[in-house]
Amino acid sequence: MMAARRDEAVRHGAAPARRVVLFGLFGSGNSGNDASLEAMLGFLRRRPGIELTCICSAPEQVATRYGIRGVAIGARPAGGRLVEVADRLLGGLPRRAAGFGRAVLMASRADALIFPGTGILDDFGTGPFGLPLAVFGWCLGARLGGARIAFVSIGAGPIHHPLSRWLMGRAAAMAQYRSYRDTVSRDFMAGIGVAAGVAADGTVDVKADAEHDAVFPDLAFALPTPPVAAAPGPGLTVGLGVMGYYGWSHDLQAGAGIHRTYLDKLRRFTLWLLDQGCRVRLLTGDAGDRDTVAALAAALRAERPDLAADRLSAEPTADLQALMGQIAGTDLVVATRFHNIVAALKLGRPVLSIGYASKNDDLLAAMGLADFCQHIETLDVDRLIRQFTALRQGRAAHGRRIRARVAVYRRRLDEQDALLAARLPLAGRKEQGA
Q1: What's the pLDDT at 89?
Q2: Which InterPro entries does this entry report, sorted A to Z (predicted)?
Q3: What does the alpha-carbon distance between residue 104 and residue 415 come to, in Å, rounded to a whole number?
Q4: Lowest mean pLDDT among 14-23, 272-281, 404-413
Q5: Phi–psi pair at 288, nearest 5 degrees
């Protein structure tokens, strides 16, 4: 049907629509990932004549929310229950083969394949035959079909499994445009052989464009910012971003001890905040965080049964705009998820990071907050209290510096929009050839 519409457009002298495919873990409840998609859609919808398809985790939710065609990243093998049983017995090989073949075929029909933001090039919670193979398959299909491939303001690394590293490295090497949201990501990919001028076959182009493999801010910095709310009363309101963290592999059984330790440390820190007279708002960034938030809130109320309702709040949010709406009513933020930190910085809020990857540290360093980071698995509560105290004392100066830096980020993203408009096939073919 798409081909018929294209032929009809050609017969009437119109420029056929460009077929742009977006790829990412969208629609599954992660507000940061969805914010990256939303920012890219805003850029693309300012250019007419584009047919959009989103390859994502939850196609129905993406189609409903954003009004574009959604296609699941994975594919189930056709053939009924017998085939499903065989698939399980063969370790999922038929399903993976079917998904890889479908990816190559669909991508070969696109004009552009775009990976908009997110930490798409790491293996957090996935093995080589999950996301790494899918990314490679889509890039291979796009390259075979002559589509242009763009990784835009992405996060990369770490990638621990050697096969995952090879698949994602080769996928990125096929792209005609790559930009990273931080220097850590760019340096990681350069370290595995993906850099400006390095082709998929390993040859080097010494005339590579210096703008290739540039660092541009996270795409979420391009989204509108809600108005800043007035403080709800005397004393500080602290936003505490909580994550359902079970270790890098996200194994709920093997990582149960990691999760318990993290939760207990947050409990101790939050009790200290409450004892200092602070109000605490528990924040989420993913639907998978809600159980951890509920467990933390229950533990706190068990120890402080007389705690007033307005001293501790926890309301789930569905997207980054809603999350920013909650952060707008806070004074300081302590968070684990990367886009909790991005949302706080967009609002000029000083942030203390309890991160699980170096992306948090790199972003805070760029904001002049390098001293306010810890790793989630080595979290020291006493040090966290000292860091929080120092952040609170300097919050006015920190806030001014953050707001100035965020304004620079917005201008940098405008510069990237101009680059993308020039380098990707985003106009009708007749117009492109004119």
Answers
A1: 57
A2: Polysacch_pyruvyl_Trfase (IPR007345)
A3: 32
A4: 14-23
A5: -70, -5
Q: Are 343 and 352 in contact (CB under 8 A)?
A: no
Nearest by Cα to 154 from 134, 192, 183: 183
At 206-265, the pLDDT tens digits run: 344 444 689 999 999 999 988 766 666 678 999 999 999 999 999 999 999 999 999 999
User: Over 143-156, what HEC string results?
Assistant: HHCCCEEEEEEECE
Q: What is the C-alpha to C-alpha distance for residues 241 and 293, in angstroms, rounded to an integer?
A: 9
Q: Could you tell me which residues are beta bridge partners of residue 355?
A: 375
Residue 378 DSSP class? G
Is the preceding omega at residue 158 within 30 degrees of 0, hence cis? yes
**What is the rounded distance in angstroms from the CA atom of residue 17 to the CA atom of residue 258?**
50
Give one DSSP letter per residue of 304-365, joined into a string.
-TT--GGGEEE---SSHHHHHHHHTT-SEEEESSHHHHHHHHHTT--EEEEESSHHHHHHHH
CA dist 155 and 179 (Å) reads 9
Band of pLDDT at residue 119, cut at 50, 70 and 90: very high
Which CA distances in Å does 179 have to 172, 188, 205, 273, 333?
Answer: 10, 13, 18, 39, 28
Does the pTM exceed 0.85?
Answer: yes
Does residue 317 contact residue 284 with C-beta atoms inside 8 Å?
A: yes
Q: What is the mean pLDDT of residues 390-403?
A: 97
Beta bridge partners of 178: 151
At residue 158, φ and ψ (nearest 5 deg) are -75, 155
**Residue 198 in 3-state DSSP?**
strand
User: Residue 209: what pLDDT?
Assistant: 42
